[in-house]
Write a structure and sequence with these properties.
The structure holds two protein chains of two kinds. Chain A is built from 13 helices and twelve strands. Chain A is of the alpha+beta class. Chain A starts with a helix and ends with a helix. Chain B starts with a strand and ends in a 5-residue tail after the last strand. Chain B has helices spanning about 45-50, 75-85, 100-110, 115-130, 145-155, 175-190, 200-205; strands spanning about 5-15, 15-30, 35-40, 60-65, 70, 85-90, 165, 195-200, 210-215, 220-225. In chain B, helix 3 (about 100-110) packs across helix 4, helix 3 packs parallel to helix 5 and helix 4 (about 115-130) crosses helix 5 (about 145-155). By secondary structure, chain B is of the alpha/beta class. Classes of the chains: A alpha+beta, B alpha/beta. Bound molecules: adenosine-5'-triphosphate and magnesium ion. The site of magnesium ion has 3 residues of chain B, from helix 1.
Amino acid sequence: MNTFDNIIIALTALRTNLMRSILTTLGIIIGVSAVILMVALGNGLQGLVINQVNSLGSNLIIVIPDSDGGRRSSQDGVLTERDADAIQREIPEVSAASPRLSKSVKVVAGNQNRSTQLAGADPDFVAVNNWDIVTGRNFTVAEARSGAKVALIGDTVREELFGDVDPVGLTFRANGTPLMVIGLLGAKGGGLGNDQDDLIVVPLTTARRRISGGLQTAGPPDAVQVIFVAFQEGSDMNRAKEDVENVLRSRYRIDEDELPSFSAFSMEEQLRSAESILGAFKIGLAGVAAISLVVGGIGIMNIMLVSVTERTREIGLRMAVGARTRDIRLQFLVEAIVLCVIGGLIGLAIGGGGALAMRNVLPDWPITIGAGTVALAIGVSAAVGLGFGLYPANRAAKLIPIDALRHE
Amino acid sequence: MIVRTHELVKVYETGGETVHALDGVSIGVSQGQFVAIMGASGSGKSTFMNMIGCLDVPTSGSIEIAGRDVAGLSRDELAEVRNRQLGFVFQQFNLLKRTSATQNVALPLIYAGVSVSERRARAEAQLADVGLGDRLQNMPNQLSGGQQQRVAIARALVTRPSILLADEPTGALDSKTSVEVMKILQGLSEKGISIILVTHEDDIAAYAERRIDFRDGRVIADEPVRNRR
Ligand SMILES: Nc1ncnc2c1ncn2[C@@H]1O[C@H](COP(=O)(O)OP(=O)(O)OP(=O)(O)O)[C@@H](O)[C@H]1O
Ligand SMILES: [Mg+2]
């Protein structure tokens, strides 16, 4: 008696009651599809978040003034270009501290126009935010200082304004000010609801002096909205965040025990908290999937008990011609496992197909169905078959031959 | 002695009532003997067959099959005795539905650990021996009653057992088919297989060489068959 014989016996038995077999596996099909879909989406979401954070650079600290007006005073918190310079000067591990102003502007080229984000920044902005310049060049320190009318454009802006034409050297207007494209930023792709490529970058001075619209809020003339602080590779980002905070605390004379008028985030920290939220989310999804598998498993157990009862005479006969306890047990276990694995494969096809179809809906999510997923589907369904088939199989195996043979 | 029982007792208790289905049966069957067991309904014939068939355990007394006391054997050891030493033929044939004649006959060989190709060859040869060489792939519902019983006989013989136990093998057959089946059994007996047969009909018992009569769980007569057919 070998497993192959048992699989043949199992398939014959399942074919005999084809409709019932299919209905029985429905629970497993649904359970496994749910598991596959949940795992694929969970991993996709995680990949998306990691990609997003990595696209910003994980050695990055982002500092913003507290908009609710620095809890220590009635005034709004403020950050300035001088703060950025101080951070750069005072912390040796800082590779660049890049301030940024931003504003939404209307850009026009020919008869194309669009609303986009304008970032006023220094030449470090590109490197600090992990941008690539695919064609053209960054602006120079001299251009930054003089407020040259030059711009780097994101891929979305390029496509909207210039289509497939190489935009470098071409001119467009932002809130009426003509700007020349000197470089094109490589696409980062969209993400959780925002398109990172929908922006133009100009020197800070240009943004302040040459482009109309209320870029400035209250505060000193060199106020900025964000400071991006990039640290050298391998820096301790917890320390780094503290260092940045300490520099700013001393500049604004905020004591240890006072709440600061700014907030500093480390991207690494963001990544970790996003991962822990996602981890909990994935456990929740796995729990839902597990419940549906248990329900499916109970269905399998139920139908196997029916099958054992229906085939009691067959069991008796097999025992009469020499089947041992383990032969009968194995026969019914294999039947339960085959039933579950067939359900698992159908579930894999449905869940996997569903997950891949989600790619069309969520094009930026890195959704993949790997060998691990396939192994998971088969393994989980085989385990359900084993777990829930054991009791019916043991019941069959323990029948007394003559009672089984005489069963009505 | 290929089968020997000593003071075999089987007591059933159902709903407070005690039935002595076997009440001290001591019988010896020698190698190659063809024995018919007769007796009124309820006299304990089937109970006796189930005991020596190792399908059930006696309340007391001992059973030896081919010189081996089966009383102390485990379930799996009993399964092996059934597989190697015993062949069963039942009144209701007990073939597996939707399973071809060949596969039905090959069933005991699965549990004997015989390879797939040898199983098939031996099953087909055995079916040819009982005259069903042209019905190998028929399902039970595509065979007549007599043919089904011949498949069952082939199944009982395929592991080359030394003992064939047949509880009313002709009970579901007409008289002409019964004769065919009995001729086959007689042929087997001549080849040296020991046969124990239960029947209600004198005509059928006449094919055997020895006849044992049961009444109320006891042996009341045990003598050679005189007008043997
Ligand atoms: N499982 C059981 N539980 C209770 N009593 C039983 C059981 N099996 C048999 N008996 C009783 O034991 C007695 C002998 O039964 P058995 O089946 O051996 O008779 P039999 O000689 O084969 O009869 P028949 O010729 O009608 O087949 C009967 O009284 C029967 O009711
Ligand atoms: Mg009987």
